[in-house]
What does this fold into?
Amino acid sequence: MSNEKKLVEQITSMDEDFAQWYTDIVKKAELADYSSVRGCMIIRPYAYAMWENIQAGLDKRFKETGHHNVYMPMFIPESLLQKEKDHVEGFAPEVAWVTQGGDEELTEKLCVRPTSETLFCEHYAKIVQSYKDLPKLYNQWCSVVRWEKTTRPFLRTAEFLWNEGHTIHETKKEAEEETIRMLNVYTDVVENLLAIPVIKGRKTESEKFAGGDATYTIEALMHDGKALQAGTSHYLGQNFAKAFGMQFLDREGKLQYVHQTSWGITTRLIGAIIMVHGDNDGLKVPPRIAPIQVIIVPVAQHKAGVLDKAAELKERLSKIVRVKVDDSDKMPGWKFSEYEMKGVPVRLEVGPKDIEKNQVVLVRRDTREKIIVPMDEIESKVTELLDNIHESMFNAAKKVMEEKTSTAVNMDEFKDAVENKTGFVKAMWCGDAECESKIKEITGASSRCIPFEQENISDTCVCCGKKADKMVYWGRAY
Amino acid sequence: MSNEKKLVEQITSMDEDFAQWYTDIVKKAELADYSSVRGCMIIRPYAYAMWENIQAGLDKRFKETGHHNVYMPMFIPESLLQKEKDHVEGFAPEVAWVTQGGDEELTEKLCVRPTSETLFCEHYAKIVQSYKDLPKLYNQWCSVVRWEKTTRPFLRTAEFLWNEGHTIHETKKEAEEETIRMLNVYTDVVENLLAIPVIKGRKTESEKFAGGDATYTIEALMHDGKALQAGTSHYLGQNFAKAFGMQFLDREGKLQYVHQTSWGITTRLIGAIIMVHGDNDGLKVPPRIAPIQVIIVPVAQHKAGVLDKAAELKERLSKIVRVKVDDSDKMPGWKFSEYEMKGVPVRLEVGPKDIEKNQVVLVRRDTREKIIVPMDEIESKVTELLDNIHESMFNAAKKVMEEKTSTAVNMDEFKDAVENKTGFVKAMWCGDAECESKIKEITGASSRCIPFEQENISDTCVCCGKKADKMVYWGRAY
It folds into this structure.
C-alpha cells in the first residue's frame, strides 16, 4: 500500500533538477537511505545486490590475474600514517580519529582507514626477504572512511565500500605493467558489465594519489555532462618502500627496494549507473549486474492457469537468468511502474490470451519495445535480448558521451563549451600546474586525464598559448 | 629459502604447551600476523580464503532462506546506542569511540559498531508501516570492534569479521522459528562444511545477549578440553521494538510492535578449525572449505614427462576440486611438510615410476594413509576421498568430544571432572544464577548451554542440592 502510494508520485524530471532527480531515484528505487550518522548511508538490499554482482565480476578477474584477498585492521596508528610524508598530508585532514577505547583514553590515537597503503607496507616489510617472495599480489574488500563535509548517496559519503589492491614487485617494469593491467580490469568491468563507456588516461601531477608516482584513471560522463572518476590505479614507485623499509635481496644478492602499486574502485559505481543510464521513469540497471534480470508480471492472474504458467516460466528461466514473479495483489499497472522505477531490464507479461496463443510478451526497459515470443523459445530469446539490451545501453551512453565532448583551442571556446555544451572538453595543455588551476578557477572544470589516445587539437596551450603537446580531457566533476 | 628454514623447526607440541602450539600454527601455516594496531590482526591469504569459503557456504544458505544482504554505517552515535538500556550496558564498556573528524571535535561521539541492532532498528522503524511490509530478513557481512584487553588471533581480537542477521516479524512464533532456523543453518555449516560437531542449546539468563529475551548457541569442544561458542542466534522479543518505536498496523488495523531476531557467526571459526582438527604437524583443513583441496607434488620433477604429467592431472582435477601443483625447486620432502603444516587434505604424488605404472599416489593428511590409484580413475577417487576425509574428521572430533564429556552429581565430581578429565561437564542446575556464578568461581567452568537434548543426570542441583530439572553443559571456555 505504502509502496503503491510512493509510485504514483512522479519523480522530478532530470531536465528540471538533476540533483533532485538523482535523490528521488535513490529513494524510490530503494537504493539507499540516510542514517543518523552524519554523512553515512545505508545501502539497501536492491543496491547491495548490484554491488555483490559488481564485486563478483571484479573478484573473479582479480583472482584470474593471480591476486589473493586478505584482511587488514580498520585502524591505523597515527605514527604509521605519518611515515610517508605526502601520503599523510593528503589524507590526515579528512580522517576520523578514535581516541578512546572503552573507558580508557588511548595513548596514541588511531585513524579509521581512509586507504590502507601504510598497513600493507608494514606487513610486506615483515614477510618479504628475497626476490623469490615477489611479487605479492594482495587485495582487500572493505569499507573506508573519509570525513567529507558535503555528502551525497553513493557519490560522496563519509564511509564507502571498495576494493583496494596492493602489490609489490621486483622491477619497475613489472609494477608499471600491473598498474595498467588492473586499470584494464576496471575498464573491462565498467564497460562490459555496467555498460558505461570510459576514457582511459593518466592523471596530472596535481590530481594524482598522495604518495604515488603516477595515477591512471577511467573517467565516465554522466547525463548532466559532469564527469565521474570511476576507478583509479596507482604506480607508487619506491616512495612507500623507502619510508617503510620494504627491501629484498635481488638475484645478485643485493638489497633493493620493491616497486609498488595500488588500485581501487568503489560503491560510487552505483551512482554512475543511475546517472549514465537512468531516465525520468527511474533506474535502468545494466543486465549483467541486475539483481532481477527478468520480472514476470502475470496479467489477469485470478484467471485459471495464469499463476501456474507464470511459475512454470520462472522455473524454466531461473536456470539461466535471475528472475522473479510478482504475484502480489497489486494491479499490473502498478507493478509495471514499480519495476520500471527499479530498472529491471526485461518485463515478461503473461495472461490468458498469451497462454491461448502459446506466447509471452517481453518488454525492454531501455527502449520500451514490446516483443512477442513463442513460449517454447523464451530461454534463447531472453538470453539474446539481455545481451542486446547491454549493447544498446552501452551504445546509447557512448553516443551521449561523444555528443557532449567538445574541443577548445582558446579560453573563450573553453568557457563556452563548459557552460553551453556541458560534458568533456578536449584541449591542449602545456603541462604547467598554474594553467591547470587557472582553468579550474575560471571554468570550474578540472583536468580529468591525459588520455592514452592522444589527438592534436592544436599546437598551443588552451590557457597560456605556449607550446603544448599534451591533449587533456577537462570537465566539471563529481 | 626463508620458508624452508621456518619449516624445519618443529612447532611446539600441543601436549607440552597448547597455547604456544596454537600460536605456532597460526604463524607457520601463514594464517594471521600481528599488526602495530593493538589487538587487531592481519588475516593472511590462506586463512582469508578459508573464510571466503565459509562465507560462501553461509551466504548461500542465508539467501535460500529468504534473506537479503545490506550495508549499515560502521559508526553508531552515542545517543542511538543508549536507546536500549540493557544493550548499552552490555556493550558500552568495550567500544572504541571516534571523537574527532578531520580537525574538528565531534559534538556527539560515535562508537565503532560492536554489533548493529541499533542501526537496523532505526532503519526498520522508518521503512515498516504495515504487516504487509513484514517480515524483513536482512543480513550484513562486516567487521565489528570490541575493545578487548587480552587478545589472541581469531579467538579474541579487538576487530573481527562476521555476519550479523537482523530480522523483524509479525508474530512471536515466526520470530522464534527464525531464531531456531538460523541456529540450524549455523549447525549445518559448522558440522557439514567444517566437520566440527556441536552441542545445540539455550544460554542461561546471565550468559544471554545484552538486550535480548533468549540466546541460542552452538558449542564446540577444542582439543585441550575448552569449549568454544561457535555461533549464536538471539530472540530479541519486543525490547528493541519498544525502545526504537518499531510498530506496524496488523491485520486488524491495530498498531503492534514487531518481534525481532539477530544472529552472528565470526572468523573465530578459523580458531576452532585449528583447535579441533590440528595436530603436532600443523593444521588439518576440512576438505569442503579448504583453499587447496589437492596439492600435486611432482617427484623427480627434472625427469622427462613428470612436470607435463603433473600439469595434465591438475588440468583434469581443476574441473572438480581446488587443486595446485607445486613445481618449485624445493625438495619433495620440504613440500610434504609445508602442505602438512598447511593442512591440505590430499597430497597427490606423481613420479617417473608412477607414470610407468599409469598410477598416482594419494596421501591423506588426516590419517597419513597412502592410496595407490589408477591414473584413469583420479576424478572419482579424489571426490570419494575428500568426502571420506570429511566424515573421518567429523567422527574423530565427535569421539574426542564424547570422551571429554563427563557427568557430575556433586561439586567434588564437578571439580574432578574439570581438572582431571577436562572437557564438558554435564550436570543438573536449579536455575539460580547464584549457583551458576558459584560454580564458575570454584571451577572456572561457565554454563555453556542448556542443551535441547536433555538427560536426567540426577534430580538435584549439582551446586546447592535443591530440586533441579535442567541439565546444563558446563566448561572452561575460549
Q: What stands out?
A: Residues 18-277 of chain A form a domain with the BirA Bifunctional Protein; domain 2 fold (CATH 3.30.930.10).
